[in-house]
Design brief:
The protein has 128 residues and is an all-beta fold. 0% of the residues lie in helices and 49% in strands. It has no helices and eleven strands. Strands 2, 4, 5, 6, 9, 10 and 11 form a seven-stranded mixed beta sheet that branches. Strands 1-3-8-7 form a four-stranded antiparallel beta sheet, with no helix packed on it. Strand 4 and strand 5 form a beta hairpin. The protein is globular and about 40 Å long.
Length: 128
């Protein structure tokens, strides 16, 4: 059974850094774009970043551009989200997801509707 498992969340002070990992098991996702989303209490799930199947193209929400970096190592079936200069408004549950709508595509999407596989999420809390 295919699974995405996030790790690396935790409590950090404002200005600090965290690195999230998303490990896939049960199947390979190397042909799909991957994305990170987040959901804060009482808010809708929002797009954070996405990366193409090859890693050659990335796309970020304006709110995290310049602070977060998405990357992937297909040989390890793993996607990462390096988060620097964290702010209290970054506090949320972070989810990784696989865009299974198309394979080997350079198009990166913000809508969660095209992402067919989701992890269980990891909590990130940024204190002020």
């Amino acid at each position: 059974q295919a699974q995405l498992v996030e790790s690396g969340g935790g409590l950090v002070q404002a200005g600090g850094s965290l690195r999230l990992s998303c490990a896939a098991s049960g199947r390979t996702f190397s042909s799909y774009a991957m994305g990170w989303f987040r959901q804060a209490p009482g808010k809708e799930r929002e797009f954070v970043a996405a990366i193409s199947w090859s890693g050659g193209t990335t796309y970020y929400a304006d709110s995290v551009k310049g602070r977060f970096t998405i990357s992937r190592v297909n040989a390890k079936n793993t996607v990462y989200l390096q988060m620097n200069s964290l702010k209290p408004e970054d506090t949320a549950v972070y989810y990784c997801a696989a865009d299974t709508a198309t394979q080997y595509s350079g198009n990166l999407r913000e809508s969660p509707k095209t992402y067919g596989y989701w992890g269980q999420g990891t909590q990130v809390t940024v204190s002020s």
